[in-house]
């Protein structure tokens, strides 16, 4: 199934959803991902493997972190070649002083924002999606 690539439609139908929990970014040198964790994002870098996972899993595995994030899923099925969605979302959040780490999945885009501002970020995104008269 092909994703949406029209920016106007993407913004109007993005339906941001705040996933429950607190998420953290951590790294494991040498790529040895502990078997007792379930990362929601894995990125292989020369310095090690970056994991995004729940704070609970990181604590249980003894993995260090210093950034607490809320995880927002944009529920529109965005095409990987779509142009402008990341920029529009990033600008809206940046104007409010909210950092945003974006990860594109096959079906959806995922945003990791400061946990203490996650609800505010969802409200900003809902406003961005609202129809204009």
Uncertain regions spanning at least 5 consecutive residues: none
Q: What share of residues are in beta strands?
A: 25-35%
Number of structural units classed as domains: 1
Q: Could you give the count of β-strands?
A: 6
What's the N-to-C terminus distance? 32 Å
Q: Percentage of helical residues?
A: 25-40%
CATH architecture: 2-Layer Sandwich
Overall 3D form: globular
**CATH superfamily caption:** VC0802-like
User: Which value, in Å, is the CA radius of gyration?
Assistant: 16 Å
The CATH topology label is: VC0802-like
| Number of helical segments with 4 or more residues | 4
Please state the average pLDDT score.
94
* Level-1 CATH class name: Alpha Beta
**Biggest sheet, open or closed, and with what strands and sense?**
6 strands, antiparallel
H and E order: HEEEHEHEEH
**SSE class:** alpha+beta
**How would you write the strand order of the largest sheet?**
2-3-1-4-6-5
């Amino acid at each position: 199934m092909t994703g949406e690539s029209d920016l106007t439609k993407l913004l109007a139908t993005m339906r941001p959803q705040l996933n429950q929990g607190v998420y953290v970014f951590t790294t494991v040198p040498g790529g040895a991902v502990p078997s007792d964790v379930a990362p929601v994002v894995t990125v292989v870098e020369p310095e090690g493997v970056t994991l995004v996972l729940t704070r609970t899993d990181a604590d249980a595995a003894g993995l260090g972190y210093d950034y607490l994030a809320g995880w927002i899923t944009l529920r529109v099925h965005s095409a990987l070649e779509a142009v402008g969605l990341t920029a529009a979302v990033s600008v809206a959040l940046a104007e409010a002083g909210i950092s945003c780490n974006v990860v594109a999945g096959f079906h959806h885009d995922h945003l990791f924002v400061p946990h203490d501002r996650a609800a505010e970020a969802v409200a900003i995104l809902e406003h961005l999606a609202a129809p204009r008269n």
